[in-house]
Write a structure and sequence with these properties.
Low-confidence stretches: none
Number of helices: 11
Organism: Enterocloster clostridioformis
Number of domains: 3
Strand content: 15-25%
Order of helices and strands: HHHEEHEHEHEHEEEHEEEHEHEEH
Number of strands: 14
CATH superfamily of the largest domain: Periplasmic binding protein-like II
Distance between the termini: 67 Å
Shape: elongated
Protein name: DNA-binding transcriptional regulator, LysR family
Pfam families: HTH_1 (PF00126), LysR_substrate (PF03466)
Keywords: DNA-binding, Transcription, Transcription regulation
CATH architecture of the largest domain: 3-Layer(aba) Sandwich
Largest sheet: 5 strands, mixed
Helix content: 40-55%
Radius of gyration: 30 Å
GO molecular function, one term: DNA-binding transcription factor activity
Strand order of the largest sheet: 4-3-5-14-6
Length: 304
């Protein structure tokens, strides 16, 4: 079956006449009749029946008409793609971090003329890597601790993904005004055991973090845990309850805009690697290079 046969079939159905359809299609009636007979033979159905006014569709013909109209409409959309100007897309996969969306706002402001579409895919570490590997995202942004580092680098090598290191951060405590710790200049990890912690749901790499110690306290000792799967929910919980969050210092200014403080942990001892990733041997788009330049300027300043 060919698309042209469906066009012939629909023209006959629309005009209700073989003669009129042949004239409209600039072909002879015998050739048109032969094309329809071949289509009927291939589908093993009868498409038309004759009456004194011309031809009308059978019930099977009516069904095929609906299917054919959908197919031809889709063909028109496909052909239309060639006529439209293709707008570049900047697709970023990122560990959930409030600051990345702000940086993408800066990218947007640089392209207000509509010359760029922006897509942010927030993922846990493993999914960030997989999203870049699959090509769904051009770049990935990662933050990983000492315990995760070896496994992450192994996975990146295995998947032929390039790691571009930006700097080393550490963990702080994020708290809102409802927390008794809000006005502290520094906290000890042992003090935090009395309060609930909010965090993202676990994946393979976050499970490794359970072996990590912060200021001499193992993460397994924190029993009061609230799980939130997106940044907006986490921010609201920090703003309006006494929960706390372990997070990097890199986002202190963005959290401060929401009234959330970033407080140092005494003798924290945790190193957080900050990096961006891409598929090896691929040339970055202009928008991706622009975003990388923003990261390279922002990360060193935000860490210190």
């Amino acid at each position: 079956m060919q698309i042209q046969q469906l066009i012939y079939f629909m023209k006959i159905a629309d005009l209700g006449s073989m003669n009129k359809a042949a004239e409209a299609l600039l072909m002879t009636q015998p050739n048109l009749s032969r094309a329809i007979m071949n289509l009927e033979a291939e589908l093993n159905i009868k498409l038309f029946k004759r009456n004194n006014k011309g031809v009308v569709m059978t019930e099977d013909g009516k069904k095929l008409y609906q299917y054919s109209r959908t197919i031809l409409n889709q063909m028109d959309l496909i052909k239309g793609m060639a006529l439209r100007e293709i707008v570049p897309v900047l697709s970023i996969a990122s560990y959930p971090l409030i600051s990345i969306s702000r940086l993408l706002c800066e990218v947007y402001n640089n392209h207000k003329d509509g010359s760029l579409k922006i897509q942010l895919l927030e993922r846990r570490l493993q999914r960030v890597i997989e999203t870049v590997e699959s090509g769904e995202a051009e770049l990935g942004f990662l933050m990983y601790n000492d315990v995760q580092s070896k496994e992450i680098k192994y996975m990146l090598r295995y998947k032929h993904i390039e790691l571009n290191y930006l700097g080393t951060d550490t963990w702080y405590v994020n708290v809102g005004p409802y927390s008794p710790l809000y006005n502290r200049e520094e906290v000890e990890a042992s003090e935090l055991l009395s309060y609930p912690i909010v965090r993202m749901p676990d994946d393979y790499f976050s499970n490794l973090t359970f072996y990590l110690s912060i200021g001499g306290i193992s993460l397994t000792e924190f029993k009061k845990v609230e799980y939130m799967s997106d940044n907006a929910a986490m921010i609201n919980l920090l703003k309006y309850t006494d929960v706390f969050r372990f997070g990097p210092g890199i986002s202190r200014e963005d959290f401060a805009m929401h009234g959330i403080k970033t407080i140092p942990i005494k003798n924290c001892g945790v190193n957080i690697g900050v990096a961006w990733i891409r598929r090896k041997k691929e040339i970055l788009s202009a928008a991706a290079r622009e975003f990388v330049q923003m990261l390279e300027l922002w990360v060193p300043k935000a860490i210190h």
